[in-house]
Amino acid sequence: MKFTSLLASAAMALGLATGAMADDKTKVGFVYVGPVGDGGWTYEHDKGRQAVEAEFGDKVETVFVESVPEGPDAERVMTQMALEGADLIFTTSFGYMDPTINVAKKFPKVKFEHATGYKQAENVSVYSARFYEGRAVQGTIAGRMTKSNIVGYIGSYPIPEVIRGINSAFIHARKVNPDVQFKIVWAYTWFDPAKEADAAKVLIEQGADVILQHTDSTAPQAAAQAAGNVITFGQASDMSEYAPMPRVSSIIDNWAPYYIARTKAVMDGTWTSVSTWDGIGAGMVGIGEISDAVPADVKAEALTLKDALANGSYHAFTGPLKKQDGSDWLAAGETADDGTLAGMNFYVEGIEGDIPN
Amino acid sequence: MDLSAINPVLLVASLMVAATPLLLAAIGELVVEKAGVLNLGVEGMMITGAICGFAISVETGSPWLGFIAAAIGGAILSLLFVLMTQVALANQVASGLALTLFGLGLSALMGQSYVGIKPPAMGRLDLPVLSDLPVVGPILFSHDPILYLGILLTAGVWWVLKYSRAGLILRAVGENHDAAHALGYKVIRIRILAIMFGGACAGLGGAYISLIRVPQWTEGMTAGVGWIALALVVFASWKPWRALLGAYLFGGVTVVQLNLQAAGVAIPVEYLAMSPYLITILVLVILSADKSGAPAALGRSFHASH
Amino acid sequence: MIVLEKRPQPSRAWSLATPLVAVLATMFFGGLLFAALGKNPVEAIGTIFWEPLFGEYSFYYRPQLLVKGAPLVLIAIGLSLGFRAGIWNIGAEGQYIMGAIVGAGVGLAFYPMEAFYVFPLMVIAGALGGWAWAMVPAFLKVRFGTNEILVSLMMVYVAEQLLASMSLGLLKNPEGFGFPGSRNLQSYASAHNAELIEGSGMHWGVVAALIAVIFAYVLLNRHMTGFHIRLTGEAPRAARFAGVKPARLILFCLGVSGALAGLAGMFEVSGPSGQVSIDFNVGYGFTAIIVAFLGRLHPVGILLAGGLMALTYIGGEIAQGSLGLPAAAIQVFQGMLLFFLLALDLLTNYRIRAARKEVA
């Protein structure tokens, strides 16, 4: 008998057995790529998990494993969770994509939610956040507040999500300040405080007085604070301990509403495989409190933009826009479609330098 | 591409800061190796120092106490190495690796409640006239105290090794431990002291990263710097001033590659990121012709067999 | 007064007992550690050692032991040959990465063609990739006398950057919407390192590991090169007199360990892992060093040690999930295991005696 079917029937038998015994508790598993104490990406996912616990109390049981490397280890952890009776599993990193699909095949009754991926299945949903909307707000504030007209950007990896963020920030900075220039440094890590501190210092030394980052630690904030007169934005978490200067605002990943909704769907039996890409409006992207270091008129402008993005009356990528090589991309009034955004691999006109590879 | 955006004065000042953890760890390991012991556990001792320093600093509010705690923490961890190699006569390479693994895990455990916390800041030197001088000011007179300590330590180690009796005995032990034993010197005791000194220095280097350079705590934050310190000792041919040079060179390459990136230089980022390691290899090759410095008894266990 | 007296010959009894005693000591002190962290020590130790082998879902975990242990054993065998001769290859992680890149690259070059010779070519490519990467420290050591520990280690960092470069550039999946990472080899049948018997966890890498164990055993005990290796490690001067050419030995040991590490990487990337991605390497090259020492540099010992390490990894993951034990505790646990083993090894070579202080 094929092992997979042996496994599946064993799992089903187990599921039925446990189901008959304790059907009231919904078990939700979380697979994290980093430590919950990272103060950024994983920390926010874990807050989402805690929100689920708070919302449903006794009706739900959550488990989590942190710092799971991508690859066969992730597959093992997911299988373990499924074997031990999880009904819903959140896999919170792009690199978990293929392992999630593999394990989902073996456990058709378990629902999977994969963050930032693009492969779906009958029991696999994908979800991500429109962080670029938050970047638009940051770009506006940056463009208005920079005095040196140099904005430093610490990129993690040259993947579409990061490129989107850079483009969105740049477009909106240029809109309010045609002289602004972006200097981009690639750290090749999502979280490495030492590297991020070095990158921030270098950018500041080269004249940047605004630092934007797509990496998750507070090291750039500390570097900016040491330098004085440099503003930064919190990434993934509010990083409010650095407010009101240098952190003037932030992008906050807020997974709680989505996690609660999906858990409820499993409990109600209404869960289906969907692809969710929510922004400020749905509450998935939070904009941190804009501090008093920001002049009142700039703050008002930023908040107006935020509201427009939230209620859908404005799209962060609205034409006329050209690509970096000069070719036309969006006509006046035209907005970018999700497909192009999902695979974005070009800079918009005005950004100097090349995307690595 | 805008190379003019790179400010050479700030560059030099930055590279001195980047070099300090390397220098501290390398000087400590240099002393250890001069005594004939190869301690590969530098990374483990550095990260243990990083968390000890961070934790005490946060708890007491004083970065100075943090640094002292870091030195003590590194020294205590090195005692494990002492136990393995001087008492149990285990293989030094394996013991050093075990120490690194253990140190990484232990520090991660200890640091669990300290992630994301801001440590108390250590003041920088701000001399009234000297710090404001155009070029010399930022480079020589505006750093934190530990950076100056690193340089002082280098000078101190150089002087002790070259001119003092203790240094002579240490070197003798490293060159030929049987002869030194025959002359009545307590080989094991001297090596234990050297190993603990190495541990303390590595601890200081680690704490520099977590308290000044970043400053934050994350598990694994030393990111291989301990291994580079080991390379530095060889690169320096076991001479303290060369270690200083090497630390600045390596710190310099790391800082320069980031500057080049920010200035928009067209070299692909991954190759820039590889450069510090490739340059280290190159320098190691060039300098390995100079084998004069390696202590002859390096890596061999000493046991006074009757 | 306690004196250490060198034994005329290493004690056989102790050399067999040491690993056992080390494991027991680790279980005890590890239990104390877990208790200090607020977890039930017996439950924790049981979860780590018992669950994967005999627990409720061991039908799944036992094959996983093979999956996790195979690369460790394969790399450790190669390393042990060098370690015995005092040739320290610390850069196995880099050779592992290169084997994966070259092997996967060759496989992807054939895509989408299905043919029986794709996989064997990948195997050869993987071994060559790892071999070539190890030749850098080997050549530098032979020609310039450069320390192989440091060069091989620096090459690890270079390899990691190359991995990132490949994942984002040359090997990037053209149908991957711009995301990093290569095509998944698990869906390319000719290149997939599939399980030989479904559900057993046994893929070609496991087979290779077992072959490597046998090969190393034969080499060390029956072949001249093996004799040279052992001689160089135990009595370097005698080796010189016996005419052992150090350069040849260095090239051989580093080359073999590089090739085996490259093979491990290639089997991993075409099997359990599936794609070349930025975070593909998880430290097997370094863990294998521990496995080599745990196995006391003996092929059969390494086989058992690899299994033991795999057990602590998998059991550790289970403990994380079901007991909330932090990942770092498992690392400390593994470090402790090595410590105890290295320290207890003393008893194999030395006898502890209470002796009177000698009077002049």
From TrEMBL, chain B:
The keyword Transmembrane helix applies. The keyword Membrane applies. It comes from the Bacteria. Pfam families: BPD_transp_2. One of its GO terms (molecular function) is transmembrane transporter activity. It is a multi-pass membrane protein. It is found in: Cell membrane. InterPro entries: ABC_transp_permease (IPR001851). Its main location: membrane. GO terms for cellular component: plasma membrane. The chain crosses the membrane at residues 6-25, 37-58, 64-84, 96-115, 135-161, 192-214, 220-238, 245-265, 271-289. Keywords: Cell membrane, Membrane, Transmembrane, Transmembrane helix. PANTHER family: ABC TRANSPORTER PERMEASE PROTEIN, SUGAR ABC TRANSPORTER INTEGRAL MEMBRANE PROTEIN-RELATED. This is ABC transporter permease. It comes from Ruegeria pomeroyi.
From TrEMBL, chain C:
PANTHER family: ABC TRANSPORTER, PERMEASE PROTEIN, GUANOSINE ABC TRANSPORTER PERMEASE PROTEIN NUPP. It is a multi-pass membrane protein. It holds the Pfam family BPD_transp_2. Its main location: membrane. This is ABC transporter permease. Keywords: Cell membrane, Membrane, Transmembrane, Transmembrane helix. The keyword Transmembrane helix applies. One of its GO terms (cellular component) is plasma membrane. It is found in: Cell membrane. GO terms for molecular function: transmembrane transporter activity. The chain crosses the membrane at residues 12-37, 65-83, 95-111, 117-140, 149-171, 202-220, 249-267, 325-347.
